[in-house]
Amino acid sequence: MNSTNGSGRGTRTIAFVGLGHMGGPMAANLVGAGHRVLGHDLVPALLDTAAEEGVEPAGSVAEAAAAADVVVTMLPAGKHVLGLYRDEGLLAAARPGTLFVDCSTIDVADARHAHSAAVAAGMRALDAPVSGGVVGAEAGTLTFMAGGGEAEFAEARPLLEAMGKKAVHCGGPGAGQAAKICNNMILGISMIAVSEAFVLGESLGLSPQALYDVASTASGQCWALSVNCPVPGPVPASPANRDYRPGFAAPLMAKDLALAANAARAGGVPAQLGLKAAELYAAYAEEAGKDRDFSGIVTTLRTPGKE
Ligand code: NAD
Fold first, then answer.
1. Which pLDDT score is estimated for 304?
2. Mutate to test the pocket of ligand 1, among 19, 41, 293 (most ligand atoms within 8 A of CB)
3. For site-directed labelling of 125, which of 24, 99, 144, 230 has its Cα 20 to 30 A away?
4. Longest dimension (CA), the chain
5. Which residues, in sequence order, are CB contacts of 45 under 8 Å at separation 6+?
6. CA of 2 to the centre of ligand 1 (A)
7. Is 180 a known active-site residue?
8. DSSP state, 68?
9. Burial (Cβ within 10 Å: 0-12, 13-18, ≥19) of residue 53
10. SS3 state at 113
11. Distance (Å) from CA 270 to ligand 1 centroid
């Protein structure tokens, strides 16, 4: 139930399902902001870790949902969210009017189905995927992109701000997921563009530093170049300087681009570079890139034998 603590901030009882790389620290930040958090995950060890941060382990998702004002999910994919909502009884167990906030990155169509299922069960819903990775989840500096009603966003906002530095209301159901995959399509394409430019520059005898010095202050400037530079040297903190240890892991980029490609195909949008980027990242993430940062794709773009 909604109550007010001594500082005047509303405290809530939150069911948090999915305490993995992202969900674990996000749930801990909600506890840190003074909320009661009932956590659940299929992996018992994650419940133990979360308990050390003040999350109360719940015996089942239904038990957590029944006691909650707000249910937050942070799960791998749409099938897990829909499975929990419909088949594993999350919606059935919650009290009428409970706010469901799904922070997972899932297909836009799945997000809209999840929203409709929640509303049909007498609940309220918001999709609120994140950008910022595990580092942002731990530091509480995530960016949330939300889709759903104004009232739902306003209610969720203090919770999103306890887990992140920024929350943007992008529109109706699914709009948060749409913003997430469009942003990451820009990122995936721009990383390949920057990588191809470095490889072409190398073949023309241009040093990476010279290209960086020009492009980072000219019209080629972008995050993939100036923060996550795919070649070692110019940006000391970029994953290229630590053998492409993530960072933002290539399989997650491949996942997000596959979601963008699905949405483009479903909507009849040509998105030629987006589809090509999805194909290149799927191949990279399956082999050399399976535990590498997404910027490591540069190593697959050089002529064989010239790495
Ligand atoms: P993860 O695999 O570490 O965590 C997901 C957790 O969900 C797992 O611990 C799993 O056991 C649990 N789970 C799955 N089905 C469940 C069920 N039925 N009941 C209870 N628990 C269940 O994944 P993650 O890296 O934390 O990512 C979560 C989501 O966030 C994904 O959608 C991902 O795309 C997105 N995301 C991840 C990052 C990142 O850098 N890791 C960044 C942005 C967005």
1. 64
2. 41
3. 24
4. 66
5. none
6. 27
7. yes
8. -
9. middle
10. helix
11. 30
Alpha carbons 100 and 38: distance in angstroms, whole number: 14
Atom of ligand 1 at shortest range from CA of 256 = 34
pLDDT, tens digit, for every residue of 32-60?
999 999 999 999 999 999 999 999 999 99
The C-alpha atoms of residue 188 and residue 180 are separated, in whole angstroms, by 12
For 226-259, what is each residue's pLDDT tens digit?
Answer: 999 999 999 999 999 999 999 999 999 999 999 9
Q: Which of 145, 148, 150, 132 is nearest to 181 (CA)?
A: 145
- Provide the pLDDT for residue 8: 38
Question: Which amino acid residue places its CA nearest to atom 1 of ligand 1?
Answer: 20
75 Cα–ligand 1 center, Å: 4
Residue count of the chain, please give it: 307
pLDDT in tens, 120-170: 999 999 999 999 999 999 999 999 999 999 999 999 999 999 999 999 999
**Closest C-alpha to 233, from 203, 211, 218:** 211
Q: Is-contact 142 130, C-beta < 8 A?
A: yes
Cα dihedral 196→202→206→207 (10° resolution): 100
- Answer yes or no: are the C-beta atoms of 224 and 230 closer than 8 Å: yes
Write the single-letter amino acid at 188.
G
Q: Judge whether residue 10 has pLDDT over 90.
A: no
